[in-house]
Design brief:
The structure holds three protein chains of three kinds. Chain B is mainly alpha-helical. Helix content of chain B is about 75%, strand content about 0%. Helices cover about 35% and strands about 25% of the residues of chain C. In chain C, a hairpin with a 2-residue loop joins strand 9 and strand 10. The chains are: A mainly alpha, B mainly alpha, C alpha/beta. At the A-B interface, helix 1, helix 5, helix 6, helix 10 and helix 11 of A face helix 3, helix 4, helix 7, helix 8 and helix 9 of B.
Chain lengths: ~300, ~260, ~525
């Protein structure tokens, strides 16, 4: 088990480095720079700014500088929000994004697994068919449609939830979290239903039945864990999906999370900011995949030896 | 037939309308009617009204749907070709080559790929061609995994070994025995890739990184609608609803096809 | 009074009658065995009365004096948990993967309402079914155990609550041949020791004959014949039973007369086959080590071994469809190159036939294209019409009619598919067939017919055979000589009759005992 974690972490570091370098060089290939404002700056100021931020050095040297600073936890200064370092911006945005993403995946798991269980128990009946239909619709709901639509209904028309910002209490979280969670919940419901349908046909369920166990006990003790294996392997892609979804949701609901900084940064060529966000995202996803691996091992001991 | 494949019928109707409507409408998608800015639905010649610039909604919906579906199909084809080539090679060659190729796919799966695509869009400018190459390159991963799994299981099947013993050269084995047997599954996953791509394209367009004005796509329409939703909710609900209907129908048909073949 | 009785049991699934009017009894301490081919309804007969397979029953079911005929689901569950234990065919999948052996045993022991057992008691149960290192095993997950060990755990769990009846559905057929006798002996001992009634289901008359007291022979959902085991086998009344008994190869039967052998055809010298370990791990797996065999014209050689002995790997290397690491294969004293280096013409000398007949045929092709495939490559000079003519002729040789040509493999029975596979193998006139367990996936009667077909081809076409199997008795019907493989090495070889008469190695003795 421990060996598995260590092995995963060993592969995580080169992966992370690769992502950072790839993004670094990609951004620098782009025409245009961070100081192309509305009015062009005079050449001297431009040169001075370039020098301050080390942009006049050769590309590989800049890359090396960046990575070595990163290793010490320094993300560098933001080029557009000039009064802030990237670390400060990230420290502000990360808690918001993490809260959104964490709550969304919890909600999706609770709704998805419950719905999948209900459908599997009632397999072939009306309940099953309606749940699966709803799940299919839910998976096809893009956050950039549900987000604004929710805001329109509950914010503008009914006026019961705030349309933007992080004000009063926790009610600002409701719509963004729901918009993020719906497609993931739909996918999890489908996976749970399909997983249970497969597992309940397997031989070890018949063995359990032969022991005269009640059906509910068979379902929860013998059936559910292996049935959730596909759900666990979906968690990695789901996390990546949530982070992308968060970009939209933060934009739609005007929340100062990482996603908004990312889009703003990309559009304004704020290299250190974009790199910082990409690095953090990649790190989060790698961590999440590791977590999914651990769940895997619990669900099915055969995978512990992986 | 019609009731069983209701989703398919809806898709066909939507595609038909998107292709035919622009031929009959008095307005094009980018034409501004200065006399009818923010016209309500069913006013004069604008059946669904106009947007805040006075452009005909119906014409824009038809054109947006066209572009969205076109980009989706092109990108799905890219993903099909790359996925089959990668997956079939890994599965057929096997051993360490397979191991390395699939590790690569696993690695890419774990990446926040959407961000790389966004970076690509920012870096290389925003052309439709790039949009679907970019998307196709993201969406091939699942196809590669599926194809590789199929090839791996087929490769050890006795009828492949019998063909080898019958003197059939490797290339002919792949063409005559392997590919026909994975065609069904590949088709099903192609169907399932299309809604994925629609989603990605709309997402990029929504952020202003996809299809560019004056061309339009459903994602752009949703974005415009969302910006103006307090004044004109129809502008959001129409393209949003259409997009969801397309996604749901494609997903249902794709899943049915997949279940049929596996 | 009997422990368990079925009277006129009929089972319908979705309105289709699958079992009709079956009656049988199981006495305490005795074994009643149901024998039948696949699709005979034997498993349904033994599982449906307990609600373990879907289906509607009619007739009478009496267990330990209680009539279960109109039992609801709750009563069925009671019947299962109080008095009955079950052992199934697939030990690899019959245990829950995420629960330890100990906890599954505990669950089984407590099903009839007993209080929690101590670790020591659980360990003793495992010891009773012949497992060692029992304390360690209690904490292990099922995937750590081998197939034979898992089946022992299944048996321990099935008798943990002291049932009166044990239902065993093909308990040995998924196990390695050398283990089957041991498991059957264990069941016999337990039966005697606890006065346990045993209802055994098997497709294999030969293997249960000596363990059963009563036999029930089923065909197509009906009982063909029933009676005490010894007298039924000695004097079968019904035609089906007679054919079944005749079909099953037994070592007691008279040795067959085999065709004379000619010049040396194939020799292998020191063949080694080594695979790299899967993944990135270092090291190799030796599948076959230093194997030297020879086959003459018209001769049949049996290569016999348990699963994992390397027999199939060796067969594939000879047929040129599997890797070979070192050593050489000669054909009429000329070097035969290995996989992918072999020319088309040389592939034409040797053709393979596989175990799973349906999987041997491309599901997308028509039978005519399947049969003609070797001609297309090996005899490119033939026109399409000529190929079709040859295909028709070869179908007759394997006793199939011409209307097979247009059919798709998915519509064929196992026996028909295996004949098609043999037709494809012989169409280009090879001199040697490599038969990899070619009869073991088939029902007894069908398998015997395929053996008969092979023996005719051997005689009429002077075809040489390499007959790879775990079943010495079937090999004996066609083979002159035998080579026994264990862990990739030939441990014993010689003339068939000599080896059967005085086997030298333990593995050979086990394989003979299992036949």
């Amino acid at each position: 088990m421990l060996a598995l974690i260590i092995r995963r972490l060993m592969t995580a570091i080169p992966t992370l480095l690769l992502i950072i370098l790839a993004s670094f060089f990609l951004m620098r290939l782009a025409p245009g720079g961070p100081f192309d404002g509305e009015r062009p700056l005079d050449p001297e100021t431009q040169a001075a700014l370039q020098q301050t931020y080390g942009l006049d050095k050769p590309l590989w040297e800049q890359a090396w500088l960046y990575v070595s600073r990163l290793a010490q936890g320094d993300f560098g200064p933001s080029l557009v929000y000039r009064d802030f370092t990237v670390s400060e911006l990230v420290a502000q945005g990360l808690p918001i994004s993490l809260t959104l993403g964490g709550l969304a995946i919890l909600l999706a798991l609770v709704i998805g697994v419950t719905a999948g269980l209900c459908a599997a128990v009632q397999a072939g009946k009306m309940v099953d068919k309606s749940i699966m239909m709803l799940a299919t619709v839910a998976t096809a709901l893009p956050t950039f449609v549900t987000g604004p639509a929710l805001a329109l209904f509950f914010g503008l028309w009914m006026g019961i939830l705030p349309v933007s910002g992080t004000g009063n209490g926790l009610s600002w979280l409701v719509m963004p979290v729901v918009a993020l969670a719906l497609p993931v919940a739909g996918a999890i419901a489908k996976l749970t239903r399909a997983g249970l349908a497969t597992v309940l046909q397997q031989d070890h369920i018949r063995t359990a039945r032969a022991r005269g166990l009640p059906e509910t006990k068979i379902l929860f003790k013998h059936g559910l864990r292996p049935a959730l294996v596909p759900v666990a392997s979906y968690l990695g892609p789901a996390a990546a999906g949530l982070l992308t979804g968060a970009v939209v949701v933060e934009t739609v609901f005007g929340l100062p999370g990482l996603g908004r900084y990312f889009v703003q940064g990309a559009l304004n060529r704020d290299y250190p900011l974009v790199l910082g966000v990409v690095t953090l995202y990649a790190g989060l996803i790698i961590l999440f995949n590791l977590f999914a691996d651990l769940i895997y091992g619990w669900l099915d001991p055969r995978m512990r030896e992986g | 037939m019609v009731t069983r494949h209701f989703p398919l019928v809806i898709i066909l109707v939507i595609v038909g309308l998107a292709l035919l409507l622009p031929l009959f409408l008095p307005w094009t998608y980018d034409q501004i009617d200065w006399n009818a800015v923010r016209a309500p639905a069913f006013s004069s010649s604008h059946i669904l009204g106009t947007d805040e610039l006075g452009r005909d909604r119906l014409a824009r919906l038809a054109s947006g749907t066209q572009i969205t579906l076109m980009v989706a199909m092109a990108a799905a084809l890219v993903s099909l070709l790359v996925g089959i080539a990668w997956g079939a090679t890994a599965g057929w060659v096997g051993g360490r080559v397979d191991e390395a190729m699939m590790r690569f796919v696993d690695g890419l799966y774990a990446l926040p790929f959407m961000f790389i695509v966004i970076l690509l869009m920012v870096v290389f400018g925003r052309s439709i061609l790039l949009v679907f190459i970019g998307i196709g390159l993201v969406e091939w991963l699942t196809m590669a995994r599926v194809v590789r799994g199929q090839v791996m299981s087929l490769k050890e099947r006795p009828f492949i070994l019998a063909a080898e013993a019958a003197g059939t050269p490797p290339l002919m084995i792949v063409i005559r025995h392997i590919l026909p047997n994975i065609a069904g599954v590949a088709l099903a996953y192609l169907m399932l890739t299309v809604p994925q791509v629609v989603m990605v394209e709309s997402f990029l367009s929504f952020l202003g990184l996809g299809v560019q004005e004056p061309l339009t796509s459903l994602g752009i329409l949703v974005k415009e609608g969302a910006d103006d939703m307090d004044m004109a909710p129809l502008g959001l609900l129409l393209p949003g609803g259409l997009l969801v209907v397309i996604l749901v129908c494609l997903t249902i048909e794709g899943e049915r096809l997949r279940d049929h073949f596996s | 009074m009997s422990l368990y009785s079925l009277r006129n049991l009929s089972i319908d699934i979705a309105g289709k009658p699958l079992v009709e009017n079956v009656s049988l009894d199981v006495e305490p301490g005795k074994c009643t065995a149901i024998i039948g081919a696949s699709g005979s309804g034997k498993s349904l007969t033994c599982l449906t009365p307990f609600g373990l397979t879907p289906g509607v029953t009619s007739g009478e079911i009496i267990l330990d004096g209680v009539n279960l005929t109109r039992a609801d689901r709750y009563q069925m569950r009671q019947a299962r948990s109080q008095h009955t234990g079950f052992v199934f065919q697939q030990p690899m999948t019959a245990l829950t993967p995420h629960l330890s052996v100990g906890s599954q045993l505990q669950e089984a022991a407590r099903q009839a309402g007993a209080s929690r057992l101590s670790r020591h008691e659980l360990a003793q149960m495992l010891a009773r079914v012949g497992l060692s290192r029992t304390d360690e095993r209690l904490d292990q997950f099922p995937h750590r155990l081998s197939g034979g060990e898992r089946q022992r755990v299944m048996i321990a769990a099935a008798i943990a609550h002291q049932p009166k009846l044990l239902v065993a559905d093909e308990p040995t057929s998924a196990l390695d041949a050398s283990l089957r006798a041991e498991i059957m002996d264990l069941l016999d001992e337990l039966r005697a020791e606890r006065n346990l009634g045993l209802l055994l289901v098997s497709h294999d008359l030969a293997s249960v004959a000596r363990h059963a007291d009563q036999l029930v022979v089923m065909e197509k959902g009906r009982v063909v014949e029933t009676g005490p085991a010894a007298s039924l086998i000695a004097k079968p009344r019904e035609d089906y039973t007679k054919r079944l008994i005749a079909a099953i190869p037994r070592l007691e039967e008279a040795a067959p007369t085999l065709p004379a052998v000619g010049d040396m055809l194939l020799t292998t010298r020191d063949v080694c086959i080594v695979f790299p370990r899967p993944g990135w791990r270092r090291g190799n797996i030796r599948a076959v080590s230093d194997v030297s065999i020879e086959v003459r014209e018209g001769e049949a050689l049996a290569i016999v071994g348990g699963s994992g002995s390397g027999k199939s790997t060796l067969g594939r290397a000879i047929a040129g469809i599997g890797a070979m690491t070192s050593g050489e294969i000669r054909w009429r004293n000329e070097i035969l190159p290995g996989r992918r280096k072999r020319t088309r013409e040389k592939y034409g000398h040797i053709q393979p036939v596989f175990q799973d007949p349906i999987a041997s045929l491309n599901p997308q092709w028509k039978v005519i294209d399947i049969i003609a495939e070797p001609l297309r490559n090996l005899r490119p000079e033939f026109s399409k019409a000529e190929r079709a003519r040859k295909a028709k002729a070869v179908l007759q040789e394997v006793d199939l009619s011409e209307d097979m040509l247009g059919r798709s493999p998915t519509s064929l029975s196992g026996g028909q598919a295996q004949r098609i596979a043999i037709a494809r193998a012989i169409i280009a006139k090879p001199e040697l067939l490599v038969l990899d367990e070619a009869t073991s996936a088939l029902d007894a009667l069908v398998g015997a017919e395929i053996l008969r077909l092979l023996s005719r081809l051997q005689r009429e076409n002077r075809l040489s055979l390499i007959f790879i199997t775990h079943d010495i008795a079937s090999a004996r019907r066609v083979c002159h000589r035998i080579a026994v493989l264990e862990e990739g090495r030939i441990v014993e070889t010689g003339a068939m009759e000599d080896v059967i008469a005085s086997p030298q190695q333990e593995i050979t003795q086990k394989l003979i005992a299992a036949s």
